Structures are given as structure tokens and as C-alpha cells.
Amino acid sequence: MADEPLVLGIETSCDETGVGIVRGTTLLADAIASSVDEHARFGGVVPEVASRAHLEAMVPTIERALTEAGVTARDLDGIAVTAGPGLAGALLVGVSAAKAYAYALGKPLYGVNHLASHICVDQLEHGPLPEPTMALLVSGGHSSLLLAPDITADVRPMGATIDDAAGEAFDKIARVLDLGFPGGPVIDRLAREGDPEAIAFPRGLTGPRDPAYDFSFSGLKTAVARWIEARRHAGEEVPVRDVAASFQEAVADVLTRKAVRACQDEGVDHLMIGGGVAANSRLRAMAAERCERAGIRLRVPRPKLCTDNGAMVAALGAEMVARNRPASDWELSADSSLPVTDPHVPGGPHPGRVHDHDHVHEISKDNLYS
Amino acid sequence: MLLLAVDTATPAVTVALHDGDSVVAESTRVDARRHGELLLPSVDRVLTTAGLALDAVTGVVVGVGPGPYTGLRVGLVTAATFGSVLGVPVHGVCTLDGLAYAAGLQEPFTVATDARRKEVYWARYDGSGTRSGEPAVDRPADIAGQVAGLPAVGAGALLYPEVFPDARGPEHQSAAALAALAAGKLAAGEELLPPRPLYLRRPDAQVPRNYKVVTPR
Ligand SMILES: [Zn+2]
């Protein structure tokens, strides 16, 4: 198989319909249609609204990506798609489209893991991933520390949030401050004009007996909300910029502290940061500072590649092709809780695949038909 | 002419090939939970049975519902993708019309499918099999007066015998009927529907708790 495979990747795990095309580790196209505006008034992603938008955007986004890349579909070496984790109904639109696309073109299909794709996307920015790679993934849906000796076959969870995702905390604090949804960009902007040391908000799970690599943002969220309410109660003005800066400081502090520690403990001399929260300027700056001090090389893709997109799926798909990993079969399922330990979903018999992780992520998740 | 018809708007995952004169091959599997897994293998089986490749298809026909959302979209996005790759038109047909066609009744009747949440998707048809008005979603008891005295077909009718005492088959959608109906309409130069979903319900505008928290612990 070509060592520079031409692969199209489809991503529909949340509210972005993404289609990317790569040749090996070279990005050729990254087409995105987002339904984020439709979710804004609900303060979070509404699964059914996202799924409806994916259906409308799917084929036009594929066609746009092909035009942007200047390649014809017949030349593709494979079609990759996010098989999970994510919102079940949203994933199903992408998986169904990818199957139809691969089948119609007579190309192999690769159902891949969304989290592994977030890591692999860095190949498009900084070249082949070091092995192993340490990755901190932070977004509205994930806050994980992952160690990947082989991104196509061996990804190990080091730690994860035990309650809210980091991006969720940003959204919730933005809601308390009446700043709208999503909360990340606006808090980042306001925080630049605030004092990060104005208020000492708690750093979750950083005690000596706490798990070293897990995260908790629920306590921080509550502390910030209480602090704001107390001010309002007393009839005082809320210093929005200082609150934003101090909150953001607490998040960035915990994330970078644990990520650097994981690198040191595992003897990994570089760290990649991905996910939507990786666009946060304070997180980037603090990570750069602390990695530098610890002699760790930091790799953070440009913001557009950090948020959910099709290019990251294509990047991992291309790696699957290059390493001769088995393709998925036509019965490939959308798996809303695909474990990160499965970088892809190879075909073949599935003798009662059992998932020991919880499935409580979405309303009407119990039956794909409803 | 070679039409590929698919419908995933009901618990049936059904696929058929129609050459303009008759049905060439058909596959129907009833499993409300596995539309995504079953559809593509069914398409492959139907083509293999007919000894044809997908690129022989000159048009795609898709049931546009009404139907519960998640399964419905599997057929629609598959049809749209095939249409895009093959460069052939994609025609929408109301899922209830397919059941009405399959019923072949010569008198006024009702078609009802299961809309879940104790509701049915339904429409009335005249003695020539033509639908009167747009399909709707309602609680069976609320439409009892409108369907009284009429025979009724479809799983939704069979599910509520107190409202549909003269319920009968076919219970499930068949893409063969959908394809035959579409082939007849196309031959007569009639317009079919755009391949857009008939949801008939607004989305549940509810952000789930802990949305997207999907990493294993
Ligand atoms: Zn993501």
C-alpha cells in the first residue's frame, strides 16, 4: 500500500460536520459545516438538532472537500470515519455516509476513534508523531491524558475528568456570567484584561492523595458560581474580567501541571495538546512555559485542527492505511462510547463485543430507532 | 432503467432493485435497533443476488418518512451519498405511500406506522390509493373519529386495535413496493418528493446532562 495514502475522513461526533482529505501527513482539505449557532440558545449541544444538521450538510461538505483538495474520489485509497465516541445519532449520519461512499467507490472503510484522531491530527502540523506520544485532550467533551505508543493500535488512558469536561466548565461559567455559548473564546478574550491572581479558585484533585492524572472541574465551577452569586447578593459589581482570568488560570494550572507530571513519570520528552480548549491562549502559554522548564517539547496544532474536524479523521485513516491495519466491514456500528483503547474498529466477527463503560451520555440512547 | 430503493423510516430495513418493469431483487429485515448496521449489507446482498454492480443503478428512491429520526436518516444519507457518487437523481417517496401501494386496497383506507411515544404517523387514502392531505403524527385516540369505519394497514394500525378495529397487513414497509410506486410515477412523468426527511416533530430541545462525556474512566 502507498506510504502516502490519499484518504478522506468524515467527522460527525458532535455539532461539526467535518470532511478532510490528506495525503499521508499532508493536509489537502478541511471542510467544515457547523450547527453551533443553532445550539447557542440552549446553552449546549442538542443531539437531535446536531443530527438533523449533519444530514443536510453531509454530501455538500464531502463535495466541497474534494473540490478544495483538487482530487477525484476515484483516486482515494480509503475512507475513514469517526465510529465513536460521541453522540449516537450524530455519529450514525457520518458512519452511514462513509459506508455508502466507500461502497460506491469500491474503497476500504476505516471506522476510527475520535480521541485517537485528535492526537493524530498533529502529524499534519508537525510531521510524524513520536512514539510513544503523550497527549492532553481538552474540549467540551473530553479532558483526558493519553499515552499512545502506537496511534493505530495502542492508546492507553492515563487519566480523565471524573465529572465535567474542561470545555464544559468554560461553557457553564460563561452562562453564569451571561456571556453566551460557547464560553471558551469569550472567557479567553475577557481574561486577557483581567488579573489571574485576583481570586484564588480551587485546583481540583491536586492533593497528595488524589489520583495523579485525573481531573475534576465540578468543584471549581461551583466555587466560581458561588463567588459570583455572593457578589451579586451583596449588591456589588462582578469583576467579570478578573473572574474570567482567575477561573481560566485555575483550569490551565491543573491541566498543565498534570500533563507535565505524566510526561516526567513516563519518561516522555514531548507533549501534544489537542481539542477545542487547546485554542485557549492561557493554556498554550502556560504549557509552553512549563514544558520549556521541564525540557519537554510541546506540540500544539493550529486552533482549527484542535477543534473537531474531518482532517484529523483522515490523518488517522491514512496512518491505518500506511500501516496495513485491517479495514472495517459494512456492518460497522456507530458506538457512542467507543473506548479510547480501540483506535479503530476492524472488521471480522464480533463475538458479543462487551463494553464495560457507561452509556449514559445522551437522551434516547437506548434505541437507535427513537 | 434500474432503480435502487431504500427505506429505513420504520423498524424495517428494506432495499430493492427495480428495472422499470418489475422487481429484480429485494431484502427486508425488521430490527428497529440496527438500521445503521443492516442497510449497507442489505444493499450489497440485493446487488449480488441480481448479479449487478452499484454503478448500473440509474436512480435512487428513498423513503422520506415520516419516521422516528435516527433510523430515518440512515436511508436518507445513504441515498444522498449514492446519488452524489453515481451522479444519478435521488427521488423521495412518502413511506406511508409505499405501504398504501403494497396494500392495494380498492376502497378508502388508512395507513398508520408506529411513531413511538404512544403516537402514530398516519394518512388517509381514497379508493384509488391516492393520499388525501399531508401525513400527520397523533395519538390514536385523538384521530379515532377520522379513521372510524376504514380498513387500516401498517404496524401502527395493528398496534392500536381499539382505534383501528379493521387493521390488517402489510405490517411492514417493503422497498419493492416503494420502487414499483416510484417507477410508475416516473414513467408517467410525475414529480416525486425531494429526498428530505419528514420528521413531523420538532427536536427535543434538551441538552443532556454531561453531554459528550465519553472517555472511559
Ligand atoms: Zn473532539
UniProtKB/TrEMBL annotation, chain A:
<keyword id="KW-0408">Iron</keyword>
<dbReference type="InterPro" id="IPR000905">
    <property type="entry name" value="Gcp-like_dom"/>
</dbReference>
<feature type="binding site">
    <location>
        <position position="188"/>
    </location>
    <ligand>
        <name>substrate</name>
    </ligand>
</feature>
<keyword id="KW-0479">Metal-binding</keyword>
<feature type="binding site">
    <location>
        <position position="280"/>
    </location>
    <ligand>
        <name>substrate</name>
    </ligand>
</feature>
<dbReference type="GO" id="GO:0005737">
    <property type="term" value="C:cytoplasm"/>
</dbReference>
<keyword id="KW-0808">Transferase</keyword>
<dbReference type="GO" id="GO:0061711">
    <property type="term" value="F:tRNA N(6)-L-threonylcarbamoyladenine synthase activity"/>
</dbReference>
<dbReference type="InterPro" id="IPR022450">
    <property type="entry name" value="TsaD"/>
</dbReference>
<keyword id="KW-0012">Acyltransferase</keyword>
<feature type="binding site">
    <location>
        <position position="118"/>
    </location>
    <ligand>
        <name>Fe cation</name>
    </ligand>
</feature>
<feature type="binding site">
    <location>
        <position position="171"/>
    </location>
    <ligand>
        <name>substrate</name>
    </ligand>
</feature>
<dbReference type="InterPro" id="IPR017860">
    <property type="entry name" value="Peptidase_M22_CS"/>
</dbReference>
<dbReference type="GO" id="GO:0002949">
    <property type="term" value="P:tRNA threonylcarbamoyladenosine modification"/>
</dbReference>
<protein>
    <recommendedName>
        <fullName>tRNA N6-adenosine threonylcarbamoyltransferase</fullName>
        <ecNumber>2.3.1.234</ecNumber>
    </recommendedName>
</protein>
<feature type="binding site">
    <location>
        <position position="184"/>
    </location>
    <ligand>
        <name>substrate</name>
    </ligand>
</feature>
<feature type="region of interest" description="Disordered">
    <location>
        <begin position="333"/>
        <end position="370"/>
    </location>
</feature>
<feature type="compositionally biased region" description="Basic and acidic residues">
    <location>
        <begin position="353"/>
        <end position="370"/>
    </location>
</feature>
<feature type="binding site">
    <location>
        <position position="114"/>
    </location>
    <ligand>
        <name>Fe cation</name>
    </ligand>
</feature>
<feature type="domain" description="Gcp-like">
    <location>
        <begin position="27"/>
        <end position="314"/>
    </location>
</feature>
<feature type="binding site">
    <location>
        <position position="308"/>
    </location>
    <ligand>
        <name>Fe cation</name>
    </ligand>
</feature>
<comment type="function">
    <text>Required for the formation of a threonylcarbamoyl group on adenosine at position 37 (t(6)A37) in tRNAs that read codons beginning with adenine. Is involved in the transfer of the threonylcarbamoyl moiety of threonylcarbamoyl-AMP (TC-AMP) to the N6 group of A37, together with TsaE and TsaB. TsaD likely plays a direct catalytic role in this reaction.</text>
</comment>
TrEMBL record, chain B:
<dbReference type="GO" id="GO:0005829">
    <property type="term" value="C:cytosol"/>
</dbReference>
<dbReference type="GO" id="GO:0002949">
    <property type="term" value="P:tRNA threonylcarbamoyladenosine modification"/>
</dbReference>
<dbReference type="InterPro" id="IPR000905">
    <property type="entry name" value="Gcp-like_dom"/>
</dbReference>
<feature type="domain" description="Gcp-like">
    <location>
        <begin position="32"/>
        <end position="145"/>
    </location>
</feature>
<dbReference type="GO" id="GO:0016740">
    <property type="term" value="F:transferase activity"/>
</dbReference>
<dbReference type="InterPro" id="IPR022496">
    <property type="entry name" value="T6A_TsaB"/>
</dbReference>
<dbReference type="Pfam" id="PF00814">
    <property type="entry name" value="TsaD"/>
</dbReference>
<protein>
    <submittedName>
        <fullName>tRNA (Adenosine(37)-N6)-threonylcarbamoyltransferase complex dimerization subunit type 1 TsaB</fullName>
    </submittedName>
</protein>
<dbReference type="InterPro" id="IPR043129">
    <property type="entry name" value="ATPase_NBD"/>
</dbReference>
<keyword id="KW-0808">Transferase</keyword>
